[in-house]
Amino acid sequence: MAVAPAAHVRFSVSSVVSVAIDQTVVCPSMKVMLTGAGSGLGRRVSALLADRGIPAEATPAEHLAVAPDADAVVHLTAGDHDALAARETNALVGFPELLTAMSEAGVDHLVLLSSAMVYGAWPNNPVPLTEDSPVRPDSSFVFAQHLAQVEELADEWRRARPGRTDRKSVV
């Protein structure tokens, strides 16, 4: 099984694959589970991974299972507000179960689609806004609050087991 140094990365939609690969979260010798693969973004990410020789097993957003031979999970479902709203659900639904399934399967690498919305649009935010900035979503924007909670759960999951690392990237 290939080992990659990064376990949790936040990134912009426009660079989902390049950041994951450049930061060695996923590499050609790994098997990747891709959640939200049926979305437009999911199809693009799947194709880009395939172009780079990285096998990805696509799973629909509603099916957050983890294959026992997976090395990494690229979780796109949480960051797709429109798809979540269309299914009348939110970013938190199923995410704790996904983390549990990853732990049970021994998968230590997670790429999480997130958004700068978790930092809130506050006049006292630092410029530039970095991953070290405090997560302070606007209390009136429920999606941003849910996504911030997803990030908190991912951070707790990472810290729960030695060897899981946290390399974050804002693009």
Summarize the structure.
The chain is α/β, with parallel strands linked by helices and 171 residues long. It is built from 5 helices and 5 strands.
Key features?
alpha/beta; disordered N terminus; 5 helices; 171 residues; 12% strand
Give an overview of the whole structure.
The protein has a five-stranded parallel beta sheet, sandwiched between helices. Helix 4 (95-105) runs parallel beside helix 5. 32% of the residues lie in helices and 12% in strands. It is of the alpha/beta class.
Order of helices and strands: EHEHEEHHEH
Helix content: 25-40%
The proportion of residues in beta strands is: 5-15%
Strand order of the largest sheet: 1-5-4-2-3
Q: State the separation between the terminal residues, measured CA to CA.
A: 29 Å
Please, what is the average pLDDT? 75
The Rg value, from CA coordinates, equals: 15 Å
Anisotropy-based shape = globular
Quick one: biggest sheet?
5 strands, parallel
Structural class by helix and strand composition: alpha/beta
Number of DSSP strands?
5
Count of runs of 4 or more consecutive helical residues: 5
Low-pLDDT segments, ≥5 res: 1-16, 167-171
How are the SSEs placed, and which strands pair?
Layout lengths: L7 E4 L4 H7 L9 E4 L4 H12 L4 E4 L12 E4 L5 H6 L8 H11 L3 E5 L28 H18 L12
Parallel strand pairs: 1-5, 2-3, 2-4, 4-5
